[in-house]
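Narrative of accomplishments. A recurring question from our advisory board has been how the design workflow behaves on a single, concrete structure rather than in aggregate. To address it, we present the structure tokens for one chain from the evaluation set, followed by the sequence designed for it. No filtering or post-editing was applied between the two.
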């Protein structure tokens, strides 16, 4: 079980911190600092990734997509049943859709994204019962810390230009 009352509840902050570490790497590489990890059914991190659309010239190279791809390769299956996607920023439509297609059990995220968030802010793709799978959603884990990293990145970018 991966709900708020599960034994993994205390691990969500640790997982978000692992995603934040990835976001730092992304920011240092000149990418928007978003990080993601995929956690296996055993509670151990299976994959880690940060945003790379700029460096790869690939609009699909969001942290979530890269982490899902790595996890699928590592686990040998495109269906990641029982896995948890943990990300510093609320996933967009593409990433929320990919989580549904991967059969992710739960999406845990830090900061909400009022402009492109598709898990709670603009849409609720992850747990839309009209789809063939629904993910549990746990928003707002270390939200202030996740949002502060993004705000600092964009402020620095505005000040340098």
């Amino acid at each position: 079980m991966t709900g708020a009352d599960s034994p993994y509840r205390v691990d969500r902050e640790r997982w978000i911190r692992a995603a934040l570490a990835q976001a730092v790497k992304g920011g240092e590489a000149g990418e928007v600092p978003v990080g993601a990890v995929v956690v296996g059914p055993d509670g151990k991190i299976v994959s880690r990734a940060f945003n790379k659309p700029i460096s790869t010239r690939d609009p699909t190279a969001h942290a979530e997509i890269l982490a899902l791809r790595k996890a699928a390769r590592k686990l040998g299956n495109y269906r990641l049943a029982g896995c948890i996607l943990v990300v510093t920023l609320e996933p967009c439509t593409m990433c929320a859709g990919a989580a549904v297609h991967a059969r992710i059990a739960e999406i845990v995220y830090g900061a909400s994204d009022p402009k492109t968030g598709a898990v709670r802010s603009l849409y609720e793709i992850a747990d839309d019962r009209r789809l063939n799978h629904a993910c549990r959603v746990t928003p707002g884990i270390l939200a202030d810390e996740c949002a502060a990293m993004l705000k600092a990145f964009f402020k620095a970018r505005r000040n340098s230009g």
